[in-house]
C-alpha cells in the first residue's frame, strides 16, 4: 500500500450495479469516476418493462 | 460521469492506480446541449434503435430513452450523413444552443484513483447461431429482451402485444427456457443463467394482463428455478391464478408455416408422449454471457476470469478479484438477478472503502452554503414556472396560455415557461430570477414531485430560499399524458392545477430541519459468517464495532458445514474469520449476550445488552441485523426413528469428522425439498440442491461403487453451480424426480431401510435399499419478533425480515439506521451471505460517514393546548414517533419526536381534537387548494 492513498474510485459500467456502487462510494466520502461505454447510464435494467416478483416498473 | 468512454490501460497498485481512457466522440457539446430534441426532429437518418432491441428506428442523433441520464444528445458517427458523407448538417442548423460539434475527436483521459470497481454487466445471448429455432428466419420467434420491449409502454408497440410478422394480436405464446444456458452442444454455456425462469414467468403474467385471460401462455422448461425471496409464490400464482401453463420439456425444433407464419413445435411430454402444438409467437428465454470485449477488458486490467469467462472470486471474498484493489460486482462475476447485483455492488463499495479509508473525504468537495433569506412577515411574492417538458406537456397543453393565466393570479409576481425546467441551465436561470425579482415562494408546474422535487428544492437553496417555500403541481402525468385527445380541456385543467398550487403556496411557511450528530459506533447482532463479515467490514473502514453473539461460539450455522460448492474448506475459513474478528482492535465481541432493549433512533441508538453475568449499556449510530436462520428438524421420512436418516447438516458432520461410517455406505439417497415448497412453508430454501449434489459427489469420490440417488422436484443449481450438477451426473449420481403430491415413502422392514419412489422417466415405481438417507430440510427463521419490535422492522408471513425494497434496498430496512444481512433475510449460501454483510456495512457507512444528518421539515407537530391526551396517535403511529410528554411545560400531552416522524399524516387524520398539524400540509393549505377548485 503506497503512502499517498488516493481517495477516489473508478467504477466501470453505469448499469444498476455500477450506479449502486458509485452512490455508496460517493456517500461514504470518496470521489467517484463513473465510466460508461454508452452515451447514457442505466444499463439493461432501463430496458426492462417490469421487475419480478413485485412487478414494479423497472425504469 | 464519463460516458462514451473505453478503458485502455491501467498501471500502479492499490491506493494509487493510473487509468488511461479513450473518450469516444459524442459530436455534441454536453455543457451546451439542453436536451430539447429539435435536432432529432430534423435528422433525416433513421437507424435501428438498440434500446428497443432494434424493433423500431431512432434518428442518427439521439438520446437512448426519454429518461436517459445525462439527458444530452449524441450523434451516432457511423450513420450521421454529415460525418459520413459531408451532407445534411440539419442538426447544427436547428440546435438553439449551438451544441453540435461534427469535428469532435477521440480524446485520451487519464484518471488517478485509489481503487477500481468493475460493473461492466453482461450481454444477452444471441440465438442467431442456433439452427433449431431459426431465430433469424422465423419472424415470430423473438428473444425475451425483444418481448420485454414489446411489453413496455415506451416500447415499439406502446405495450400492445402484437406479433412481428403481421402486427396481429397473438392468441398463443410459448417461452422456451435455457436458450444459451445449460447447453454445451449448441453453445458453450454450461451454466444456468439464474434469471430466465423468473423473467419468463413475469413476461407471461404481464402479457396476460395486457391481452386478457384468453391469451394462452406456455413456458417450456427443464427445471423451474424460482429460488429467490418470494419467487416461489410468484410461480405458484402464475400457475394457479394467472393460468400460465408450465410444460416440462426441452423443445428441440421450431418450424414455421410459410403462409400463416405460425410456429409449430414438436415436444415430448413428461410421460413420453409426442405432442405437436402451434403457437403464434415463440419467445426465446436467452441467457446471460460475457462478451469478448469484456474478456479483453479483463486482460487489460490483469483480472483473472473463470472457465465460463465470469470474473474469478472465492466464496469468502465474493467481490474481490485476482488483482488487489480491483473489485467486481453484477453479472460480470456470474449470472445473477438485480437484488444480488445490488448487494454485490454495495459489497464492492465496502471493499474499496476498506482499502481507502485513510483517504476518505480527501478528494471530495463540499458545497458552499448560501445564507437563507428571512421571509417572515413579508407578503408572498410568488414565482410560477410552467414546464413544457419538450413536447411532453407542450404537445398537448397550451403552455403560454397557462403562463398568462398564472400572471393573473393573486400574489404572483412573475411567471414564465421553461423548455425543460430540470435542465442545469434552466435551474441556474431560475435561481437568478428568484434573487433578481425577490421571489419568496416558488410554484413549478411540471412533472412529478416524487422524482423532481428535491432538484427544485436544491435550486431554492442555491437562491437563498428555505427549500420548503416550494410547491409543485403535476401537469404532465396528471394532465398532458392522460388527456392527449382533449388538448383544450387539458389546458383548462392545467390552469386549475396551477391555481390550486398558487393558493396553497401563498400560505406556506419556511420549515426547519433538526440537525443530529451521528454516533460513529456500529452494533452487529449475530456472530455467524454474515455478522462477522459485517463487523470486519465496518471495523476495517475505521468504525468501532460491537458484535454480539447469543451462544458461546462465533461462526453460527457455518460451523456445521463441510465445504462450499467451489470446494473451499468452510471450517478453515470460519476459523480464520474468527481470529480476524478477535484480533481487530475496532471490534468488541460480546459472547453469550442478547439484546435486551433499544431506545433512540438513527445515529443515536442506546441498548442494554444482557450477558451471562453482566449487563452493558451501549450507544451506537447504526445496527446490522445478522441473526441467521436454522435447519428445520423434519417429522417425516422416519427422521429421529432410524439413525441412518440424517439432515444435510448431520451428514456434513460425518464428512467433517471423516467418520468411518461413511465407508459402510454402499447405497445412499437424498430427498430434496423436505419442508420447503409445501403448503405452510411455500418458499424454496435455495441452498439445498447444491448442497445435496455436492455431498453426492463427495460420496462418489470416496467410493465410486456407491449407488447415490437424489430424489428431487426441480434441481436448482443456479448460476455456475450448474456445473457440479453436470459433474454429479457424469459421476453416476442418479436423479429421480417426484411430485409434491406423490412423495417418496421411506420404510424399514427387518432392519432394511428402503425408499419407494415413482420414476417419471421409467414410469414405474422403484424400490431402493439404503444405508443412508439424507433429508435436505428447509431453512427456517428463528423467532425474530423481539428484535423486529425493538427496531420497528417488519417480518413477512414466513418469518423472515422484510428489507426496504426487494430490488433496490435488499440489505437495509425501511427504518433508518438499521441494516440486514445473511440468512435473516432469506436462505442463501456463504458467498451471498458475505456479500450481503459487506453490503449492509457499506450502506451503514454512508450514514456514519456523514457525521451529521438532517431530519425532514415535513413532519407532524402537536398543539398541546388542544390535546385531549386520548393516546390514539401513540397507538396508531407505525414509527413510534408520538409519546406523552413527561416534561414541563406540558406534561401528559402528546408530543412528536421529529426524528422518528416520517410525515405520513396518519396521526393528523386520527386526532379527534384537531391537535396535530402536518407541516407543509396543514388544514388551511389543503382547504385553500380545495376552495380554489
From TrEMBL, chain A:
InterPro entries with a match to the protein in the record: HdrA-like (IPR039650)
Keywords from the named record: Iron, Iron-sulfur, Metal-binding, Oxidoreductase
Gene3D superfamilies membership: NAD(P)-binding Rossmann-like Domain
Pfam families, per database record: FAD_oxidored (PF12831)
Domain of life: Bacteria
Molecular function per GO: iron-sulfur cluster binding; metal ion binding; oxidoreductase activity
Stored PANTHER family: COB--COM HETERODISULFIDE REDUCTASE IRON-SULFUR SUBUNIT A (PTHR43498:SF1), FERREDOXIN:COB-COM HETERODISULFIDE REDUCTASE SUBUNIT A (PTHR43498)
Protein name as it appears in the record: NAD(P)-binding Rossmann-like domain-containing protein
Species this chain originates from: Desulfatibacillum alkenivorans DSM 16219
